[in-house]
Structures are given as structure tokens and as C-alpha cells.
Specification:
single chain; alpha/beta; 5-stranded parallel β-sheet; 4-stranded antiparallel β-sheet; 14 strands; globular; WalR-like; phosphoprotein
Length: about 230
């Protein structure tokens, strides 16, 4: 039985043909699916049930998918959030998705959508009971492997599940430059997506949060990958 079986996905998409395709594919892969075409409809559904993941179009007829994502996350902090955005979306829109766990550009491959949601849920729905695990440490960074919390120089750093998974992989490979393809495979479970900019995007989110509390800690080896300073 997959880690996601029985998980509920809230699909918020105002184009009925796209919403139908997404719902059919997700149900085929044994997700429970709810669909809404508006911000208002999504909030009503989320009140009645507790989705494990939300797949949100950024542009909705009665509002902004990002604002909706923030509202849903406030109600349920462990909700997995994946955004759908136009391929030519301005950089500031993609940049504003930093509190989500992943984003997918249209037009999309439906199998990739299913794989991404499955991967996000694997990160956000750990087993119900976790054994106590020692913290991971690197310099003044400390990652609590039981509560998935991060501290730098004793101060708390608020990370999304994806940011945490990315930082943990870099810490576990301390002293090494990790190729971008390896990060895509281990953190996002992507295969053959070398052109994806998701790694660069999430490295920039991590840098913004970590560098606020100390010297830069993530290094870039151009054309190769990333490591810790």
C-alpha cells in the first residue's frame, strides 16, 4: 500500500476540463479527490473535510490561489500545497510560491502531477509514530529529525517540508557539492527533469531564511550543484 493511499487532494481549478483530467488521474491512483472552481468553493470544502494536499491554480476567478494557499495552510499547518501556474508566469509570481511545497507549470504532463503530489505527501506525511532520532548538526545549524524543526545559532528557522528535505540532504552530504540532478531525484523524486528550475528556486528560499541568521551557508558550484560552506 502506497504512503499516499486514502489521502485526500483538494483540486482548485476553474477550467472544468483541466479539473476533470486531474480528478480522474488522481482517483485512478487511489487518492480521494474534491474539486472546486473558486476560492469560496475551496474554503467551503476545506471546512467540511480535511484535505491532506491541495493542488491550486494561481489564477482563480474570485481571487488569488496564493492567498487561498496561505489561508488553507493557516487552518492546517501540515497541509501539502502544490501550485499550478502558467509557463510564462512572471518571476514574482513564482517567487511568491515559496511557502508552498512545489509548483507545476502548464501545460503539464498528468503523470508528473501525480508523481509530484505523491512525493510531496511522502515528505509531509511521515509515519504516525517516529522513533527518537539524534539531531543532525552542521556548524551552527541543528536539524531535529523527530520534529522536523531547524535552528541556526539557537534561533528557530521556519521551513516548509520541501525546504527541510533539501537542507537535510545537503547536511547529510556535508563537504560535498551535490549535483542538481541528484537533488531533483532525492528531494523531489523527479527523473529526467534537468531543465527544471525548482532546485534554484528552493535554494534561494533556503538562503533567504538561513542567511538572515548568519553568514551565507549554501555554496553554488556553477553548472554542477550545491553544497554547504
Amino acid at each position: 500500500m502506497g504512503a499516499h493511499e486514502g489521502a485526500t487532494v483538494l483540486v482548485v481549478e476553474d477550467e472544468p476540463s483541466i479539473a476533470d483530467v486531474l480528478a480522474i488521474a488522481l482517483r485512478y491512483h487511489r487518492f480521494e479527490v474534491m474539486t472546486a472552481g473558486t476560492v469560496r468553493g475551496a474554503l467551503t470544502l476545506a471546512e467540511r473535510t480535511r484535505p491532506d494536499a491541495a493542488l491550486l491554480d494561481v489564477m482563480l476567478p474570485d481571487g488569488d490561489g496564493r492567498a487561498l494557499g496561505r489561508e488553507l495552510r493557516e487552518r492546517r499547518p501540515d497541509l501539502a500545497l502544490v501550485f499550478l501556474t502558467a509557463r510564462d508566469a512572471p518571476a514574482e509570481i513564482v517567487g511568491a510560491l515559496g511557502f508552498g511545497d512545489d509548483y507545476i507549470t502548464k501545460p503539464f504532463n498528468i503523470d508528473e502531477v501525480v508523481a509530484r503530489i505523491t512525493a510531496v505527501l511522502r515528505r509531509t506525511r511521515p509515519a504516525d509514530v517516529l522513533p527518537q532520532r539524534p539531531p543532525l548538526r552542521y556548524g551552527d545549524l541543528e536539524l531535529d529529525e523527530t520534529t522536523y524543526s531547524v535552528h541556526r545559532a539557537g534561533r528557530s528557522v521556519e521551513l516548509t517540508p520541501t525546504e527541510y528535505a533539501l537542507l537535510r540532504f545537503l547536511v547529510r552530504n556535508e563537504g560535498r557539492i551535490v549535483p542538481k540532478e541528484q537533488l531533483l531525484r532525492h528531494v523531489w523524486q523527479y527523473e529526467h527533469s534537468a531543465e527544471s528550475t525548482v532546485v534554484e528556486t528552493y535554494i534561494s528560499y533556503l538562503r533567504r531564511k538561513l542567511d538572515a541568521l548568519g553568514a551565507p551557508v549554501i555554496t553554488t558550484r556553477r553548472g554542477v550543484g550545491y553544497g554547504l560552506a
